[in-house]
Amino acid sequence: MGNGDGMGGDSSGMMMRGRKFGADELQLMLLALLEEQPRHGYELIKALETRSNGFYTPSPGVIYPALTYLEELDYTTVETHGNRKRYHLAAPGLAHLDANRERVELLFAGLQHAARKMAWMKQAWQGEAGVQEAEQASGWLHEFVEARRALREALLRRTDVDAAEQRRLAAILQRATAEIMGNAPGPCDPA
To answer: Can you tell me the distance from the alpha carbon of 41 to that of 60, in angstroms, rounded to the nearest whole number?
Structure first.
């Protein structure tokens, strides 16, 4: 799912083209969308495009083989009307989805992140005048975006450090992660 900054980005934070999800990730997202409501393949494409603000629009050549595979696994059932198929989540598909719920939530969080990043970028391209609009469109404050960028850059600059320094950096990142998630540092985390 791209880099740790979001989806489909390279180490510089730039969005890249090409494959953004593996087949199993796409299948899980499709099952989650079908859990919300039965849908046609085109509706699934549009739902993923909407959730990512245009960042991820899978092609029919990706969606329909994935749906066929899910049908073969008995994870979905299909209702046919002429040449159109409407897909429904089946009990085995729900069980698979439940077993992978945390992973699906992370995938959709990545899509939401991409959607916000797209909104930010669309507005930020307007220059300084677009910063306030970017904040409104994405919900991200300029300070938040800059802090993420600065952290990414700091880690890139420290990529060749020795093991002791890597441990020190890991401890800092673990403490920051715990604080961000609202958790107190664990017993093995240095205070």
So the answer is: 8
**Per-residue pLDDT at 166:** 87
Give the whole-angstrom CA distance, residue 92 versus residue 169.
43
Q: Are 16 and 114 in contact (CB under 8 A)?
A: no
CA contacts within 13 A on the Cβ side of 141: 3
Contact between 18 and 58 (Cβ < 8 Å):
no
Q: Are the beta carbons of 2 and 8 closer than 8 angstroms?
A: yes
- Nearest-angstrom CA–CA distance, 5 and 12: 10
Q: Which of 164, 165, 162, 190 is nearest to 176 (CA)?
A: 190
Q: Hey, what amino acid is at 48?
A: L
Per this entry, what is the length of the chain?
A: 191
Averaged pLDDT, groups of 10, the chain, 191 residues long: 37 44 94 97 94 87 96 96 94 98 92 79 60 59 77 82 90 89 62 46
- Taking the CA atoms of residue 46, residue 50, residue 53 and residue 54 in that order, the dihedral angle to the nearest 10 degrees is 0
On whether the pTM is more than 0.70, the answer is: no
Secondary structure percentages of the chain, helix, strand, coil, to 5: 60, 10, 30
Q: How many angstroms separate the CA atoms of 20 and 115, rounded?
A: 14
